[in-house]
């Protein structure tokens, strides 16, 4: 038997020491990896473990001037299935198809599809989704979400606009203020296995979403409602194509209402009105939708007609081309170069002063006045009143005026321009110009947005708008207010007269092109109180049937509006006013105006 | 009558049989710890693939129980029986074991079951599979020790060393074709035993250089994937096939000082492929942190310390050499495994003894411990 010798033991000791040395090196290596490199590799590892799931930021709400919510959000859910986590496919199919009202085949197709996640239905009401959640089905996921909701449905639809499925504004204020309303989406970082299955009890890393800012409008829900009622009534009684109504504060440009009837339901913006022919091609459908969504008050131009005489008169006063008691004679027409241009009163107004010319809305008077002012004077005033540029309203899709090139204007063109024909402007441009005339010469920017309240800490940002002062002289403004008040008190606008209030205004009946079509736009622009206007309203009735005179059908609409709105905004009726105006503007009174 | 004579002998010698309980308990502890870690690392993929989260645990548990029974039996047998006579055949059991190993390695080359593109397993039908290379490691320990033991003086020079090499070469060639890492371990065991037995050590440097040169040639001329592994090792973060090792590094680094807690590994959820196998140490690091990892290494160090004590106290050279062989075997596997997992060397598939999943591996390891215990049991000491 050979015994273990000393050198054997020494050798083995060497082996063991080498092993220990190697072990120390490895422990060192481990310590390096697990302490020094821990953060580096740990981060890399987390990146592959974590999956980002976006959390939608709640979109900012929109409030009217009284703080009433007109665009909000309603919680809805998206129901999806995760194939790898489904344990009872048959039960899942049965429950989902019954609860969601989808055919079993449809649900089966998605449940049996081998994919990481399959959406079954989105925009499911919270109540229903809570019910589905209560089934506690494995592999069925209920994701909460928000859906834009408009409590007043069709109210001011073309102004407010709506959003798409991606929480992005499509038309109206929702587009204009999209950046403020959208907010910042957050993310949930969940841990997943290598197959991408989320681990239930793992701590989630959340980056909270930042809700969008709230938008406060100058729009007044009551004025808007009332204006819409009047407009709808007119639309029906006059079987008109559309009725537009704009209501604004002429001093600062805050829009109280903007009506385009027929409106559409903001909660269901893709359904065309009843009676649309079916089926439509995709293009036809899109065209019809765009027409339905179009805000004609700012996107469409028209020939303003007689209401534009306000501008002509202003130009005449500014250039001092006319004095109020200058006398004119209207034989029922005026010959300009080789053209006979007729007055609306074909028998003629006979002899009249400038004041009476305005009250009668006499075309020959204004052709004469326009000729006296001249193209330069007219265009200078147009420019001062902002008729060559967009108003800058905070709505998308605003159109600009279509004006004659100055050098192409001959006597005939000048004559027609003088009473509001042969060029086109938007209704809002007209209202802005008239506001400038009656507010003392300040060209304001019409707008809806007043302030923006951010969701964090409620920081409020007041929105400011451009005002160009002294566009016309104060004197001209004062005179124009009185002249327009006299139109309502004594002239063609008498149907807008409201007992106890001082109202100014101008009627218009525009013949649509081609003239032979016999289609009209009847309109009236009115403001009150006449001496210090706090509200201005413009109503346009597009293609009314039957009587189409602005003074007959449009003026009463403004009267009806003012009857309710003036007390609402705090203007009290004064019974003595009638007498006063009679004194001032009566046919036989000696009107003393500058 | 027999009893009295034994009592008399005992009284005359006044000596008792030693039994290394420390080694036994270290082994049992490592096996138990291994089973916990296997459950922790494999339950997720077992549930996913086999629909039974205990699948791997159960299989490993059966192997471990069988291995422990075998270990206890072997530990009570006298290891010198290996050099005794066998009935009928006129060869020693140790030689027979060696020949059986070679035959099994030949068999596996032709009829082996291929798992993960490697033909290393023999199918045992319903009992599962058997990996003969694990058996070959024990055979190597026992057979090399036997050759050296028969002529201990010859090993003092290089020709004696080569003589051993020639005896072992058939096994190395057969295994090396399919499983280089096991071939390396077998070479290591052989060199280790010879080193312990040799009076002169100078030639080991020469022999070592030759082995390194052969290894390098083998790398370059052998199958392409081996060179690729070197490239992965050098640039694990960017190499497209560095995925497994990189995921292991993620796991280790995620552990930090104290780990994520038992069962809380993220990387075992499919990121580290087959986390219960060779990569199990990375998950131990992730779940138990640096403290846990160092503790595991310390347990192995203690185990090696016990083997060292047994080897130097062995009653004869053969017992000392086989214990040394076992010591080298365990140490090599632990060091290579940890080195691979930490990307300290190019990757090669070596399981972590007692802990990695693998029925044959744990059973054979336990039998080896049984042999070491058997050697310890032959140590006589006086009270």
Give your account of this protein's structure.
The complex is a heterodimer of chains A (594) and B (383). Chain A is α+β, with helices and mostly antiparallel strands. Chain A has a domain at 256-263 and 295-447 and 465-585: Beta-lactamase. Chain A contains 19 helices and 19 strands. Chain A has helices spanning 6-36, 38-49, 89-100, 104-112, 126-134, 157-160, 173-176, 178-182, 221-237, 282-293, 296-299, 309-318, 354-360, 363-384, 411-418, 427-438, 474-490, 550-568, 577-585, and strands at residues 50-55, 62-63, 69-81, 118-125, 140-149, 186-191, 205-207, 214-217, 242-248, 255-261, 327-330, 333-336, 339-342, 350-353, 449-453, 460-462, 504-511, 520-528, 535-542. In chain A, the strands form five sheets. In chain A, strands 2, 3, 4, 5, 8, 15 and 16 form a seven-stranded mixed sheet that branches. In chain A, strands 10-9-19-18-17 form a five-stranded antiparallel sheet, sandwiched between helices. Chain A is elongated and about 150 Å long. Mean pLDDT of chain A is 87; it is low at 587-594. With 383 residues, chain B is mainly alpha-helical. Chain B has one domain (16-382). Helix content of chain B is 68%, strand content 4%. In chain B, the strands form two sheets. In chain B, strands 2-3-4 form a three-stranded antiparallel sheet, covered by helices on one side. In chain B, a hairpin with a 5-residue loop joins strand 3 (118-123) and strand 4 (129-130). In chain B, helix 2 (21-49) runs antiparallel to helix 11 (280-313), helix 5 (132-150) packs antiparallel against helix 6 (158-178) and helix 5 (132-150) runs parallel beside helix 7 (180-197). The longest helix of chain B has 34 residues, at 280-313.
């Amino acid at each position: 038997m050979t015994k273990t010798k000393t050198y054997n033991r020494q050798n083995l000791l060497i082996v063991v020491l080498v092993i220990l040395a190697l072990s120390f090196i490895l422990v060192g290596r481990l310590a390096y990896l697990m302490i020094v490199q821990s953060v580096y590799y740990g981060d890399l590892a987390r990146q592959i473990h974590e999956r980002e799931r976006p959390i939608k930021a709640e979109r900012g709400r929109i409030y009217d001037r009284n703080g009433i919510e007109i665009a909000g959000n309603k919680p809805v859910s998206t129901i999806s299935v995760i194939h790898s986590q489904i344990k009872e496919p048959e039960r899942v199919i049965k429950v989902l198809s019954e609860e969601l009202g989808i055919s079993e085949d449809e649900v089966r197709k998605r449940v049996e599809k081998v994919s990481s996640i399959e959406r079954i239905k989105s925009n499911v009401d919270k109540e229903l989704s809570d019910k589905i959640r209560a089934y506690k089905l494995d592999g069925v996921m209920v994701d909460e979400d928000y859906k834009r909701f408009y409590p007043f449905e069709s109210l001011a639809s073309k102004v407010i606009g709506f959003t798409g499925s991606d929480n992005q504004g499509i038309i109206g204020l929702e587009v204009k203020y999209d950046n403020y309303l959208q907010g910042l989406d957050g993310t949930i970082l969940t841990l997943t296995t290598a197959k991408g299955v989320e681990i239930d009890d793992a701590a989630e890393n959340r980056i909270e979403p930042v809700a969008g800012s709230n938008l406060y409008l100058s729009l007044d829900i009551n004025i808007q409602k009332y204006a819409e009622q009047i407009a709808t009534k007119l639309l029906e009684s006059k079987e008109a194509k559309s009725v537009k109504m704009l209501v604004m504060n002429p001093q600062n440009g805050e829009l109280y209402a903007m009506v385009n009837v027929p409106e559409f339901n903001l909660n269901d913006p893709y359904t065309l009105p009843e009676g649309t022919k079916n089926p439509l091609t995709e293009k036809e459908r899109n065209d019809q939708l765009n027409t339905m969504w179009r805000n004609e008050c700012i996107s469409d131009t028209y020939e303003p007609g007689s209401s534009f005489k306000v501008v002509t008169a202003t130009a005449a006063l500014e250039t001092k081309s006319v004095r109020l008691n200058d006398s004119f004679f209207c034989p029922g027409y005026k010959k300009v170069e080789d053209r006979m241009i007729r007055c609306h009163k074909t028998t003629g107004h006979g002899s009249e002063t400038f004041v009476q010319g305005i009250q009668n809305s006499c075309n020959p008077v204004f052709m004469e006045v326009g000729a006296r002012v001249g193209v330069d004077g007219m265009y200078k005033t147009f420019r001062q009143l902002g008729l060559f540029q967009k108003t800058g309203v905070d709505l998308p899709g605003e159109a600009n005026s279509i004006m004659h090139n100055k050098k192409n204007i001959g006597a005939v063109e000048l004559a027609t321009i003088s009473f509001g024909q042969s060029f086109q402007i938007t209704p809002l441009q007209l209202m802005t110009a008239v506001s400038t005339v009656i507010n003392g010469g300040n060209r304001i920017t019409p707008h809806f947005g007043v302030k923006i309240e951010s969701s964090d800490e409620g920081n409020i940002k007041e929105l400011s708008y451009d005002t160009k002062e002294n566009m016309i002289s104060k004197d001209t403004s004062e005179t124009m207010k009185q002249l327009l008040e006299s139109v309502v008190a004594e002239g063609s606008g008498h149907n807008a007269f409201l007992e106890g209030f001082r109202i100014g205004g101008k009627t218009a009946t525009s013949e649509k092109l081609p003239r032979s079509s016999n289609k009209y736009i009847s309109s009236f622009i009115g403001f009150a109180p006449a001496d210090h206007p706090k509200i201005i309203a413009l109503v346009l009735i597009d293609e009314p049937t039957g009587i189409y005179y602005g003074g007959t059908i449009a003026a009463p609409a403004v009267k009806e509006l003012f009857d309710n709105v003036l007390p609402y905004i705090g203007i009290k009726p004064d019974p003595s006013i009638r007498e006063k105006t009679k004194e001032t503007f009566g046919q036989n009174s000696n009107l003393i105006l500058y | 009558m027999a009893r009295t004579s034994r009592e008399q002998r005992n009284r005359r010698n006044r000596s008792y049989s030693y039994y290394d309980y420390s080694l036994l308990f270290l082994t049992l502890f490592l096996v138990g710890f291994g089973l916990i870690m296997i459950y922790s690392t494999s339950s997720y993929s077992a549930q996913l693939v086999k629909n039974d989260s205990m699948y791997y645990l159960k299989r490993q548990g059966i192997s471990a129980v069988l291995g422990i029974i075998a270990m206890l039996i072997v530990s009570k047998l006298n290891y010198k029986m290996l050099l005794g006579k066998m009935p009928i055949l006129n060869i020693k059991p140790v030689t027979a074991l060696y020949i059986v190993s070679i035959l099994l390695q030949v068999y596996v080359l032709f009829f082996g079951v291929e798992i993960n593109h490697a033909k290393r397993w023999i199918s045992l039908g319903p009992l599962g599979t058997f990996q003969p290379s694990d058996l070959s490691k024990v055979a190597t320990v026992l057979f090399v020790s036997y050759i050296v033991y028969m002529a201990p003086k010859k090993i003092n020079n290089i020709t004696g060393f080569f003589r051993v090499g020639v005896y072992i070469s058939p096994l190395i060639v057969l295994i090396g074709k399919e499983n280089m890492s096991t071939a390396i371990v077998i070479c290591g065991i052989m060199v280790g035993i010879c080193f312990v037995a040799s009076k002169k050590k100078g030639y080991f440097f020469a022999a070592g250089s030759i082995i390194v040169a052969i290894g390098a040639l083998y790398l370059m001329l052998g199958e392409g994937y081996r060179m690729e592994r070197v490239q992965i090792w050098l640039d694990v973060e960017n190499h497209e096939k560095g995925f497994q090792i990189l995921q292991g590094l993620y796991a280790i680094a995620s552990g930090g000082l104290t780990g994520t807690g038992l069962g809380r590994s993220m990387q075992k959820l499919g990121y580290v492929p087959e986390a219960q196998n060779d990569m199990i140490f990375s998950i131990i690091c992730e779940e138990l942190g640096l403290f846990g990892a160092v503790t595991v290494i310390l347990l192995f160090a203690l185990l090696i310390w016990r083997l060292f004590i047994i080897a130097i106290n062995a009653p004869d050279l053969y017992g000392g050499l086989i214990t040394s062989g076992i010591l080298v075997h365990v140490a090599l596997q632990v060091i290579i495994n940890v080195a691979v997992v930490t990307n300290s060397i190019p990757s090669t598939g070596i399981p972590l003894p007692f802990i990695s999943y693998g029925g044959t591996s744990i059973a054979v390891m336990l039998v080896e411990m049984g042999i070491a215990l058997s050697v310890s049991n032959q140590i006589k000491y006086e009270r």
